[in-house]
## 1
Amino acid sequence: MQVRAKHKLCRRIGTCIWGSPKCPSAKRPYKAGPHGKTGQKELSTFAELLLEKQKLKAFYAMTEAQLRLAYQEAKRSKVQTDFKLLRNLEFRLSSVVYRGGLAPTIFAAKQYVTHRHIRIDGKIVNRPSYVVKPGQVISINVEKDPAIASMAKNVNCEVPAYFQLDKDNCKVTIAREPVPGEIPTNVEVMRVVEFYAR
């Protein structure tokens, strides 16, 4: 039941938010329910903005309060708000563990962090919301956490260019800052900014 709930939004939009081939939307790319195939109707502008916000929130496994706080912080920056928001979300510790190839899902990444399996520059950090910086090294202690390290080595994903993955040693280095348009996501972040700017 819990696993299906994570992919509820995927069924609604007809494709998996995280690109998982095991997602229920792969077999049934339409809304759940008896009218799922025939009940598709045109969305209002507000509904479209809301949907993009929900997609971004689900993609990074955040709460509404966390996403709103991230937006407010990005808005105060001198950098373009949509890019700054996406950059900050991408550099959250849980996101780096997932996108860097150390965890199979964003939910597993959050669990690794909260259960104290993740280190930053050798020190344990158990806050998924911690924002990492270029040059920092995120790792799993292979000797102390052999089961987690073994799972990390079996993760198969495409790692963005601004992360450097050392799979054998279960380490991800933040190589550099991403450039606008480089962060891979299926969300129109500008619409999320428009939603909060209403």
## 2
Amino acid sequence: MKIRNVLIQTVAVCGISTAIAFTYNGFSDNGINPFIKAANGEIALDSDNGVDGSIGVIRLKQFRTMSEKKSVFLDARTESDYIEGHIPGAILFDYYQFGRFADKVLPLLDPESEIIVYCSSPVCDSSSFLARELFALGYLNVYVYKEGFSNWEKEGLPVEKGLE
């Protein structure tokens, strides 16, 4: 009899927790749509640019060349990291707050433009995650500057601070 009560209570707690989680997710700006197909753009790690439906990985030299072409730069880091310093002209688009930034940033992007996404360092995956989401939304000229902002600073290149 005791085991039966424990099982009933366990199922009840799990059910209530699941209901609360789905409710929160549904009302959150950063909620995840459980019915949407996950972004699956491939990151072309062995290539200098995206080919055949892949997302290109670029290095500093290519990044600097692309900046001369008026490409769009997206900083996938947090707002506090962005304020402390970012690549000049980069637009803040914190991947982990996608819902908050999507309405502000996506209208600024042209699906035909080159979009370069970066985050903190080579071990940071936010830029790759954001690039995949953009690719899934139809932005096909997406590149990841995998070396990240830490390399940019290390090379002594210009840095902007603040939100604007």
## 3
Amino acid sequence: MIDYFALALCHGLLLIALLRLARRSDVDSDAALEGEADQLSAREKRAKRRKITPTAREP
């Protein structure tokens, strides 16, 4: 009986921790990825100015 209680308690606490982490907004953002997103949008802007789409490029 104690084994089932210990398993349920551990899994319940892990679930609570997971839900609390998932609801935090600062965990969802990454500063390094934001910089890459800016670079990607700059590439897209340059491509639009040149009237070259990324799919039209030949390797």
